[in-house]
Amino acid sequence: MSSVGEPGGPVRRSGVGELATTGTNALFDSGVRTADELARHSGEGPPQSFGRRFARHPLAVAGAVVLLVLTLAAVFAPVLAPSDPTPLLTNAVLADARQGPSWEHPIGTDKLGRDQLSRVLYGLRVSLTVGVGVALLSVVAGVAIGAWAGWRGGWVDSALMRFTDLFLVIPALVVLLVVANNPDPSFFGLFDLPPATKVPGMVLLLAALGWMPMARIVRGEFLSLRERDYVEASRAAGASSWRIVFTHLLPNTIGPIVVFATLAIGIAILNESVLSFLGAGVQYPAVSLGQMIADAEDTVGTDLAYLIFYPGLVLFTLVLAVNLVGDGLRDAIDPHSRG
């Protein structure tokens, strides 16, 4: 009697181990490969393969270098800043007001005599803190809800997606302005929340209004991946739902998650800057790039235009670098990229 693997042999019912092997082979035969499998196939380890893929994008590499420099500048702002960004407005400080770029003040001083370079460095720190914090919270919430909905399906999926849709139709900018100007940030005593005009409160507020796209992306990926042969094989082999989700599904969703996280950083930085520009963002004594741009909005076309130019340039460069890195990471992590 012919065996199952021989041509023309009869098909017989497979055991659990054989079914898992068959499912894995079907995965390979269908042309689906994970990043590690592609790396082994090309004779490289995953780190080398990832680095090679990322290095193929010179703009992404340039963005990563710029982002690293800006991050280090923000982290070491207390060391790099020539002076206190919010000094006491003494006569000596006020006497230095409206000075253009010089050796003592590389990018000048503002209308009150405060050093612009110091304020830009500390504003950069606030922007990066808000961006990274919002991205982390949005990813955690979005992945948790999207993964649960996509894996469970049925009424759980429907309930969670309707909940997500409810948040999607909320006019975010209106809510941000209302909450930021609310004198009672605890929502009438229901929650013990920091005010939205401080960095922790701004992070929570922006994350609460920004996790929905991540949830929908992850839910769509899970709905597709859970029907793959290797997932069926894992089920037949007795793997638990937790093991399947964390071993097979989430690793194959890492590409969209990383791309969303990088985009979320840029969007959060811009949102914080817009709110600060409108006077509803991070308030004094904290310094933000949007706040500096708002303070200098009447200097366009004058000799003090540098007050709006440098914060705007740093903000533009930061958001552009984040998006370039996101594009490079997407292509580097994508298991279907060709080396």
Q: What's the layout of helices and strands?
A:
Elements: H1 16-29, H2 35-41, H3 46-55, H4 58-75, H5 77-80, H6 91-95, H7 116-152, H8 154-168, H9 172-180, H10 199-208, H11 212-225, H12 229-236, H13 241-249, H14 254-277, H15 289-295, H16 306-333
Helix pairs in contact: 1-12, 3-16, 4-7, 4-16, 7-8, 7-10, 7-11, 7-14, 7-15, 7-16, 8-11, 12-13, 14-15, 14-16, 15-16
Proportion of residues in extended strands: under 5%
**CATH-defined architecture of the domain at 121-324:** Orthogonal Bundle
How many strands in all? 0
Name the poorly predicted regions.
1-43
Give the termini separation: 45 Å
Principal-axes geometry comes out as elongated
Query: CATH H level of the domain at 121-324: which superfamily?
Result: MetI-like
Largest sheet features: none
Number of helices: 16
- Helix-strand string: HHHHHHHHHHHHHHHH
Briefly note the CATH topology name of the domain at 121-324: MetI-like fold
Our Rg estimate from Cα atoms comes to: 26 Å
- What is the averaged pLDDT score? 78
Helix and strand content put the structural class at: mainly alpha
* CATH domain class name of the domain at 121-324: Mainly Alpha
**Secondary structure: helix percent:** 55-70%
